[in-house]
Amino acid sequence: MARRDVLLFPDPRLRLISQPVEDFDADLAQLADDLLETMYAEPAIGLSAPQVDVRRRLLVMDVSEKKTRPEVFVNPEVLASASMGWIEERCMSVPGRSGLVRRATEIKVRAQTLQGESFERRLKGLAAVCLLHELDHLDGRLFVDRLSWLGRLRFRAALALQTRRAA
Ligand code: ZN
User: Fold this and answer.
1) Which positions are annotated as active-site residues?
2) Ligand 1 centroid to 120 CA: how many Å?
3) How far is the CA of 79 from the centre of ligand 1 (A)?
4) Residue pLDDT, tens place only, 6-46
5) Cα(93) to centroid of ligand 1, in Å?
6) What are phi and psi of 95, to 5 degrees?
7) Suppose 141 and one of 38, 76, 136, 160 were both cysteines; which one would form an S-S bond, judging by CB atoms 3.0 to 4.6 Å apart?
8) Pick the CATH number of 12-166 from 3.40.50.920, 1.10.10.10, 3.30.200.20, 3.90.45.10
9) In angstroms, rounded to a whole number, what is the distance separating the alpha carbons of residues 135 and 131?
C-alpha cells in the first residue's frame, strides 16, 4: 500500500468526468488499497479515485466510529433517494473549509465489488451523504458547487482572504 497525493481545489483535473471501471484486476485492487490508506491517514471518511488523479469510477469510505469498516464501491449508481437534509461537509481536496450542503440522507445504491460482482445497498445518514459526496467527484463536482448562495459567498470571501495572506 502507498499513500497518494490528493489533488487540491481549484485544480481543473477535479472537474473531469471519470470513466467506468472495466478491468477488475490487480491494479484496481491496488488503487482501492491506496485510496483507503490515503483516507485513513487524513483521517477522512471517504475518498474517490479522481481525487488522486485517476479518472475511474471507484470510491472508498469508512463511516464507522473506530474506522474498522472499509467499503469499496466500483461503478456506483444511485437507484433511489429520499429524506433531504442539510449536512456540514468537508473534503480532502478543499482543506480547511466546510459548508452546509443539502442532500438525500437515504439512498439505495448499486455498485460492483473489486471482483466485479454487482451488489445493492441501502445507506442512511452519514453513509448516504458520504457516498453522494464521493459520487459527485466521479462527475467532476465538488461540495462547494452545492452550497447555498450565502455559503458560496462565504467560501469565496474565505478564499480571497487566504490568497491575500499568501501574497
Ligand atoms: Zn470530497
Assistant:
1) 134
2) 23
3) 21
4) 999 999 999 999 999 999 999 999 999 999 999 999 989 99
5) 6
6) -60, 145
7) 136
8) 3.90.45.10
9) 6
**Distance from residue 127's CA to the centre of ligand 1 (Å):** 14
Stretch 151-163: mean pLDDT, rounded? 87
Place of cell 488499497: 33
Q: Which residues contact 135 (CB under 8 A, 6 or more apart)?
A: 48, 59, 76, 78
Å from CA of 65 to ligand 1 middle: 19
C-alpha distances (whole Å) from 82 to each of 2, 85, 105, 123 are 37, 9, 7, 11
Return the domain boundaries, the chain. Answer: 12-166
pTM of the model: 0.95
**How do residues 108-118 score in pLDDT, each as one tens digit?**
999 999 999 99
Q: For residue 14, what is its C-alpha cell? A: 477535479
